[in-house]
Design brief:
alpha/beta, eight-stranded parallel β-barrel, 11 helices, binds SN-glycerol-3-phosphate
Length: 217
């Protein structure tokens, strides 16, 4: 499963990328607004250069024509750029238009299997179901990942399922078990994946035994 980092924070992206742990990056307007203002082209280029894989950059228009115009600009920033559009009627049309021009598109804000079907029909490279936000309103976010996996497999759709709105390590584990193609993680969750109390305990015991014996490498 591919791991993407869900942030626009360049230092976090470089930290994870330098460790060789991420396959790409996803951003959204809220994440970008936390770290930037004004023209973000230079920052987007730096993000694309910091990672060897797809970087989702989102349009902010809501009508098809302006989405396509913004999408062309975003795609021109760097070969790693993937245009992100919302799962609306105009977004689906823009997805088809941009795909016809050879651009990769991530259709975001997906909350139902019927929406995911249309993203695949529109030729999306990625569809982003938002697990955490469904859980937030007492729904079953993972159930949506299950259903989309089943529908895409039943009919051979090649759109990649990019599990998004990940809030904790078990969202990642369950997404892997279901067979999501990618997960996008906030930096905090990425590093949480590495931790286990028995690892810390075991390391403390190894080092204390080693030091007590006075051995050296
Ligand atoms: O990038 C889209 C998604 O991952 C946002 O997550 O935590 O704002 O629901 P969240």
């Amino acid at each position: 499963m591919k791991i993407f980092l869900d942030t626009a924070d360049l230092s976090e992206i470089r930290r994870a990328s330098d460790a060789g742990l991420i396959d790409g990056v996803t951003t959204n307007p809220s994440l970008v607004a936390k770290v930037a203002e004004g023209d973000v082209t230079v920052m987007y280029r730096e993000i694309c250069e910091a990672v060897d894989g797809p970087v989702s950059l989102e349009v902010v228009a809501v009508d098809r024509e302006t989405m396509v115009a913004e999408g062309r600009k975003l795609a021109a920033i760097h070969e790693n750029a993937v245009v992100k559009v919302p799962l609306t009627e105009d977004g689906l049309k823009a997805c088809r238009d941009l795909g016809n021009e050879g651009h990769r598109v991530n259709v975001t804000l997906c909350f139902s299997v019927s929406q995911a079907l249309l993203a695949a029909k529109a030729g999306a490279t990625f569809v982003s179901p938002f697990i955490g936000r469904i859980d937030d309103i007492s729904g079953e976010g993972m159930q949506l990942i299950h259903q989309i996996r089943q529908v895409y497999d039943n009919y051979g759709y090649t759109t990649e399922i990019l599990a998004a709105s990940i809030r904790h390590p078990m969202h990642v584990v369950e997404s892997m078990l279901i067979g999501a193609d990618c997960c996008t993680l906030p930096p905090k969750v990425l590093w949480q994946l590495s931790r286990h109390p028995l690892t810390d305990k075991g390391l403390d015991a190894f080092l204390s035994d080693w030091n007590a014996a006075g051995t050296a490498i």
